[in-house]
Amino acid sequence: MTAPVLTIHDLHLSYPARGATGTVHAVRGVSMEVGAGEVVALVGESGCGKSSLARAVLQLRRPDAGRIVLEAPDGPLPLHELTGNALRHARRWMQVVFQDPYASLDPRMSVGDAVAEPLRAFGLARGAESRKRVAKLLEQVGLGSAVASRFPHELSGGQRQRVGIARALAPEPRIVLLDEAVSALDVSLRAQVLNLLLDLRRDLDLAMLFITHDLAVVRAIADRVAVMYLGELVEVGFRDTLLRSPRHPYTRALLDAVPVPDPARQAGRTLVALGGEPPSQESVPRGCGFANRCPLAEERCFSERPRLRPVDGTAVSCHLA
Amino acid sequence: MTALLTIEDLHVRFAAPDGAVHAVRGVDLEVRPSETVALVGESGSGKSATALAFMGLLPRSAEVTANALRLGDEDLLRDGGRRTRRLRGGRMAMVFQDPLTSLNPHLTVGDQILEAVKLHTDLSGGAARARVVALLDEVGVPQPARRALAWPHQLSGGLRQRALIAMALAGDPALLIADEPTTALDVTVQAQILDLFQRLCADRGTALLLITHDLGVVAAAAHHVAVMYAGRVVERAGVSELFSDTRHPYTRGLLASIPGDLGSRDRLPQIAGAPPDPLDLPSGCPFRPRCPEEVDRCAEEEPPLDGPAACWVKGEAS
Ligand SMILES: Nc1ncnc2c1ncn2[C@@H]1O[C@H](COP(=O)(O)OP(=O)(O)OP(=O)(O)O)[C@@H](O)[C@H]1O
Ligand SMILES: Nc1ncnc2c1ncn2[C@@H]1O[C@H](COP(=O)(O)OP(=O)(O)OP(=O)(O)O)[C@@H](O)[C@H]1O
Ligand code: SF4
Ligand SMILES: [Mg+2]
Ligand SMILES: [Mg+2]
Questions:
Q1: Out of B189, B191, B213, whose CB is closest to A187?
Q2: In the CATH scheme, what is the code of domain A4-316?
Q3: Sign of torsion over alpha carbons A99, B165, A43, B253
């Protein structure tokens, strides 16, 4: 078997808490791998640490601890050890599309320049060749090359998001991290962009770490799914197994909360499947992070922290799974 | 009952280097008290521009014309936007698509909500602060009192969005326009927010214009639906009719694009062709180049929205 494109080992990331002295433990010991051409979906509750994980993997924020190894064409790159130029060059192989496209695009840069920038920065194309590639990329994400002369504030939310995707694909990375990157697109356009990504994965072995809360997207393109809760992975498994027979009580609650595009079926459902709220990341509980909301919780769940362990081919972190 | 939001024949044009983008081309819309109307449609079809025009929030460079823009019986066109500014944030409020850009990075989240509370209610001092915490709690922000002290960049995308919803609710609005309010939220929180919206509509009689891409959200939360394509409303229906008696070929394409229960590794269904270039719309029906139903007339004349759908083939009421 070939080495995974991305190996994350025991990653921890924390932030100083607002005001006082505490610490926000956003990522608490995450380990996972993404194989060449593999699509791993990362799902989980708002605030559970998905974007923080992405930031730490990219070394945009230095993790407290953990190893990140990126398999580049000329050998493995230990990102957690790289700095300066070495790190910048390594990023050619691992690109990112952020959740908030407005915040991640330079407002003074035209769309065409924004997409051309990585081509120039990594010395991949310039002049007419660059313009040709930019036009093709914009075309592929459903924008048409006419938008090249426009500025981010002149675009709709979904158009901006697609500029971010075109920009990330420009240097032909081996893996892209997509943080809610297709959420702002209507289903048809989303399908078009996902189809493009699937084509790239087939043709170029592009791997993806797909952060999304949209389980329809997970269904459509993921090979494996990782479920995150309170900074930890609580379930990791193959898509069909995980969606058909979720093992972790949180995964079950998550699947139950998906609205179905059918008013008749929707009418008979209660929307709120999961009450309560996750504990503070500043004082993470000793036992299972989900215990205070879990319908199955027993005494042990409050005192003893479960670890990811294999159950029928899925990895689950639950005493009762 | 009279409508709370009335939009008649709204047009929005943006100046672009290579010509004017006619982003909204004659939109009519109504939302009544206690009612949720979903505005769905393709990216770039003019949903946000419609909402922003009503709220008086488009940049000066945008040209806005309409036959009527009314909040209840207040005419928003009459006094050059003064009335709109007075009502905004109070009787009518909006939640935006980009949570980060609509929060001030230099103020804590609590202080921003506090400003809105002070501006639009009689509360002050401790009562106003207590209201801020209660609002954050109502939109499902965990540890609301602590979160009120956070800076915007310290919150996750979903928490920022909930803070914005709390701010919009500060003035107890009669009309709430929410532009993709749950796009950045996970499904469990999305369910809580939709539930909150339903309670607002039922208990306070709030009228809600809900812009969304998610047809699951539409099915769960809307009473009526307006579908936009290329700057126009092309289909309008009650929520169950929209799903059971879909008319417009674009809407059909949308529904067909919903991935099935367990996708195979095949390509996902999508509507053929590309979204129209707003600077160069096709003649006749703007959906024509992508339409499987096209007839000769479609190229000659743009179909009006007289019945349920703006379509020469499928537009007749049954
Ligand atoms: N710069 C920061 N300073 C302090 N706390 C932060 C900072 N950035 C994020 N956090 C906190 O870390 C936790 C994880 O945030 P993160 O943005 O990773 O969540 P997420 O899973 O991406 O959520 P969402 O789905 O809402 O985007 C949250 O509690 C958030 O408030
Ligand atoms: N400030 C602006 N200047 C120029 N053009 C603009 C401006 N704002 C929007 N547009 C253009 O107007 C059209 C409609 O944009 P709008 O933001 O209303 O789309 P939308 O339906 O909300 O799409 P999305 O679902 O992607 O948010 C788009 O073609 C967009 O590029
Ligand atoms: S008017 Fe014609 S082209 Fe337009 S949607 Fe109807 S059938 Fe298709
Ligand atoms: Mg995030
Ligand atoms: Mg929009």
A1: B213
A2: 3.40.50.300
A3: negative
